Amino acid sequence: MIRTFRAARRERRAAPPGNGRRIRLDSVTPPLYRRRVQDMISARGLIKRYGDHTAVDGIDINVPKGQAFGFLGPNGAGKSTTMRMIGCVSPPTAGELRILGMDAATDGARIRARLGVVPQDDTLDTELNLLENLVIYARYFGIRYKVARERARELLDFVQLSDRAESKVEDLSGGMRRRLTIARSLINEPELVMLDEPTTGLDPQARHLVWERLFRLKQRGVTLVLTTHYMDEAEQLCDRLVVMDGGRIAAEGTPRQLIEAHVTREVVELRFNTEDHGTIAEKLDGTAQRVEVLPDRVLLYTDDGESTVAEVHGRGLQPASVLERRATLEDVFLRLTGRTLVD
Amino acid sequence: MTTVSENVESPSRATGSGALHAFEHWLLNYRRTWHGSVFSGFLLPLLFILGLGMAVGGYVNGSDAIGGADYVAFIAPGLLASTAFQIATGELTWPVYAATRWGSQYKAMQASPLTNDDILNGHLLYALFRAAVSAVVFFLVMAAFGLLDSPLAPLAILAAMLTALASIGAVYAISMSVKNESALSIVHRFGILPLTLFSAVFFPLDQLPLAIRPLAWISPVWHGVELSRASTLGVAPPWPWLAHLAVLVVWAVGGWMFARAALAKRLKV
């Protein structure tokens, strides 16, 4: 039975923290002794410099087969540069990069033949219709016309665009273009699909549709590597992720591990109307394990939100709004870098 | 489910079919406009032959300067070569500029197994294909007007293709390198047009002052035009035909190397 994306999310939410995800992770992570052979991507000391600017500053990554691996970070963190290096479009300045067991520096074309790539900007041919876009892309891979047309039809069906097969790309909405780009990336039946910000700029409904399709791919055993600056996207899709900042990896783990390692279980968000947040911080001292003052709100990191809120009120403070919530990757990012993900 | 290798024509990169696959992309785009281009392919030589050949020919026919030949028969092979040159280079100005800056065709190809050389050669092949279509059409119109005076006349198509081949690399390199699109208008006005006018298409080269003749000698168009004319009129070209051929080959190889370097620079990320 195919478990839908939403159902999976409901299960995850209902399950005790960490549980649901860990079980699935174990099932896709190969035993340690096989991991080296099975790694789809393996990078050691990967560096990319543009003149004086170092975009990627010595990162190590391992992505085992079947995993959904994410690069989380703000714009300019080096995510897209890393993706271009893995996609064998941009040669690394230094370091070792092996993809599908081959050397990115020498086997670029052979590696690209087995990759699916969804670039940040859709690189569709707007003058061709949807079917033609897929078929001609298949030809770049040397796939026979007959097979290309069959696959194109199937993939349009997969991304729910069959009824638009003969439409021109320029008539499509942003979400539809994104889905078409995803369909195109699958034309060569890749073992590894790279998605650079798959849902940036899409409305919530379009995002969910993309997520659901990506989740299906994951279920089929396709290895996914994606970049995002949306922490909810990372939580939804990634088995494991790295937090990137300034070209380096700031932390690595499953979303749950990252949250457990770097922040508390719960967060209380307070907003105050009148008073200066600076003086508020002193008054809040000791109500939680950590107090983070942002320009617009104060975050209290605590393992027990309820008693923290009670303590705040007990001290006679009157916040304009109080929000108790579970800690997210956004909090992890804030903790690690001192900045928010999306400004 | 079938495996990838069963459905792939060229699992090995050594077959070099990548350029053909890139060429198919441009061919697919051409499918939308081919009716128009074939029609204009007929119309252009007709207008030239009727307008210039017949009208201007009335004044100059039998002139010693053109060796006593019929003026239409004199300019037609020149036009054949220069049209192939214009069509091929025209395909490589704005389209090449656009492919890396406005459109995303090259970016899409880059993500695939195609190499930079495949991308380059695919685009050049398309320009040659367009030139070939126009050359064949032009040749047929010439035949219809009885302008082929030699059994070697079909070689004129080859001469026209060589003219195109000699020019495409250089034009591609320029279009890929220019900073802004207004530079492309300059290429047309001060490159492609004068090359057509001063390469002995409409008058023999010795009508030009000696001082500017060397410009024609280094022009790929002049050498192509002379080979084309030699083929249809059945006369000897001004230089040994091997010398004409050598200049064209130098242009073709040099141009391709420049184009390759320009593309690599542009696509470097």
Fold topology:
The complex is a heterodimer of chains A (343) and B (269).
Chain A: H1 5-14, H2 19-28, H3 32-38, E1 39-50, E2 53-64, E3 68-72, H4 79-86, E4 94-99, E5 102-103, H5 108-112, E6 115-118, H6 130-140, H7 145-158, H8 174-185, E7 192-196, H9 204-219, E8 223-228, H10 231-237, E9 240-245, E10 248-253, H11 255-262, E11 266-271, H12 277-284, E12 290-293, E13 298-302, H13 305-314, E14 321-326, H14 329-337
Parallel strand pairs in A: 3-8, 3-9, 6-7, 7-8
Antiparallel strand pairs in A: 1-2, 1-4, 4-5, 9-10, 11-13, 11-14, 12-13
Helix pairs in contact in A: 6-7, 11-14
Chain B: H1 4-7, H2 18-30, H3 34-60, H4 71-90, H5 94-101, H6 105-111, H7 116-144, H8 155-177, H9 182-197, H10 213-217, H11 220-233, H12 241-267
Description:
The complex is a heterodimer of chains A (343) and B (269). Helix content of chain A is 39%, strand content 25%. With 343 residues, chain A is α/β, with parallel strands linked by helices. Chain A folds into two domains: 5-252, Rossmann fold, CATH 3.40.50; 264-326, YebC, transcriptional regulation domain (Alpha-Beta Plaits, 2-Layer Sandwich), CATH 3.30.70.980. Chain A is elongated, with a radius of gyration of 22 Å. The two termini of chain A are 41 Å apart. The relative contact order of chain A is 0.13. Chain B is mainly alpha-helical and 269 residues long. Chain B has one domain (37-55, 64-267). Chain B is built from twelve helices and no strands. Chain B is globular and about 60 Å long. The relative contact order of chain B is 0.14. The model of chain B is unreliable at 1-6 and 10-14 (pLDDT under 50). Chains A and B meet through helix 5 and helix 6 of A and helix 2 and helix 6 of B. Chain B: The chain crosses the membrane at residues 38-59, 71-97, 124-146, 152-174, 186-205, 241-263. Chain B: One of its GO terms (cellular component) is ATP-binding cassette (ABC) transporter complex.
